[in-house]
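We modelled the chain as a single entity of 78 amino acids. Its sequence is:
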Amino acid sequence: MLDEAGIGVVDLVGRNYDPGIVPEVLEVQIDPDLPEGSSVIEETVFPTVTWHGQVISPGQIIVRQAPAKPRDSVEGIA
């Protein structure tokens, strides 16, 4: 019925997270088991809704992310 009306519901769980995507990130969970630099969409709190391919309601997601690599300290800088 939704398809007939041109309405789509987008669930992104399991996909790699890209900061340019539409959904709002509600939470970032650090996961030391992920490869460095990677982020994965863990949960859809509210799906993205489209109408004839256009976003009418951006979703809300929770993202799992690898820990940030520690910055190298620079000696001699006060």
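As a brief sanity check on the tokenised model: The first strand starts at residue 7 and ends at 10. The mean pLDDT is 89.
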